[in-house]
Design brief:
Number of helices: 16
Order of helices and strands: HEEHHHHHHHHHHHHHHH
Number of domains: 1
Largest sheet: 2 strands, antiparallel
Distance between the termini: 46 Å
Membrane topology: Multi-pass membrane protein
Organism: Nocardioides antri
Oligomer: single chain
CATH topology: Growth Hormone, Chain: A
CATH superfamily: MFS general substrate transporter like domains
Helix content: over 70%
GO molecular function, one term: transmembrane transporter activity
Strand content: under 5%
Shape: globular
Keywords: Membrane, Transmembrane, Transmembrane helix, Transport
Pfam family, one: ATG22
Strand order of the largest sheet: 1-2
Amino acid sequence: MNATPPIADLGPLNRAREQKAWFFYDWANSAFATTIAGVLFAPYLIAVAEEAAVDGRVSVLGAGIDPDALPAFVITASTILSAIILPPLGALADRTARKKDLLAGFAWAGAAAAAVLFFMTGDNWQIGVVSFIVANLCFAASTVFNDAILPIISTESERDRVSSRGWAMGYVGGGLLLALNFVLVSFHDSFGLSQGLAVRISLLSAAVWWAAFTFIPFRGLTNHPPRAVERVEGGLVASSFGQLWSTLRELRRYPVALTFLLAYLFFNDGIQTVIAQASVFGVEELGFEQGTMLAIYLLVQFVAVGGALFFGAVARRYGAKQVILAGIAVWMLIVTAALVIPAEQLVWLIVLGVAIGVVLGGTQALARSYFSLLIPRGKEAEFFSFYHLMDRGTSWFGTLTFGIVVQVTGSFRPAVFALVIFFLVGGLLLLRVDTERGIRDAGNERPVTV
C-alpha cells in the first residue's frame, strides 16, 4: 500500500509573496510624506497665503492668521481629526476581511486630494488647506490598515525583518522622488518653468507616485478573514463601535502594550520634533542655506535605508527592545551634540545627518514590529490606530517644548537639547516593558529572539 505523499507547506512562499507586495506601500506613500508633507507644502502654502493676506493676515473661520503660522494650524487640525477618526476605522478594519481594499481605497482618495494641490495657485490658499487635510487624514488611515496587515502576513519571528525592509523601501522611494523634485525646483529655469509651477508639478508627481505604486500591494496582497473577532451586536459599523468601546474597557488587560504606547509617545515625539525643527536649526542657528539643509534631508533619507536594514539585522540577534533602547541612547547623544556643534562647519552637519539617518530608520521600523508582538489577534488595526494616535495625535508636545525653550532662552541649541527629556522618559518606560509577558497576554507566539 502506497503511503500518501506529504503535502508541501506553501505558507512561507505565500507569506513571502505578500510581503514583497506589502513593502511597496511604504515605497508608495513615502512620496506624500517627503515631497509634500516634509518639504514643499508648508513653504508653498505660506507663499500663496501671503498673496491673499490683508494687513499681513488671512481669515480662517473669522480669525486673522499670520501666513507663516498657517501650516502649523493646518497640521494641528489634521492631527486632531486623526485622533477622532482613526480608532473607529481601526475597529472597522478588524471586523472585515477587506483590509487591503480599505488600504488602497484610502490611499487613492488621499492621492486624489493631494493631486488637487496642483491647483493651489495665485491667492487660492483655501484649496490647499482643505486638500492637504483630506490627504493627510487618508494617509494616516491607510497607514493604520497597512500596519495592521503586518502581523497577518508574517510570523512573530519574521516581523523585525519585514518591517525593517518596508521602512527601507519607503526611504528609498521617498528619497528618490524627492531628489528628482529637488532638481526640478532648484533648476526650474533650465526646464523653462517658473518656481511656482515647478513646485506644483512636484506636488502632483507625489500624488501620482502614491496612487500608481499602491496598485502593487492592492494586486499582490490577499484579503484574509478576520481573526478572533469578538461578538458584538449590530451591523458592521455598529459592531465596530461596539468593539472599540469593548477594547477601551479591556485595555487594562494589556498593561504591557499600554506601557509601550506611553514609551512610544515620548521617544517618538522627540524624534518627530528633531526632524521637524532640523531645518530651522540648521538655517537659523548654524547659518546654512535652505538648499544645504534640503541636501542634508536627502542624505538622511538615504542613510535611513541602511539604518533600517542594519537595525533589523541586529534585532534578529539581540531582540527589538534592546536595539530600540540603543537607538534611543544615540538620539540622546544627537540632541546633546546640538549644544556644541560649531556653526557653518559642513562636515559636522554631515556627521550629525548621518547619525540621524542611521537611528531614524531603525527605531521607527523596530517600534512597529515590536508593538505587533503585543497586540491581541483580531484587534491589529484597532491597536495600530492607538499606535498612530501616539505618533500623530500627540505630536505637538515636543514642538511646544521646543518653542517654549526658544522663547525663554532666545537660542535653538538649548531647545534641541531639551528634547533629551523625551528620549530619557521614553527609554525608562521602555525598560519597564516586559516583552515575554506582553506576548503571553496577547496570545502570540514567542519569536526566536526577544
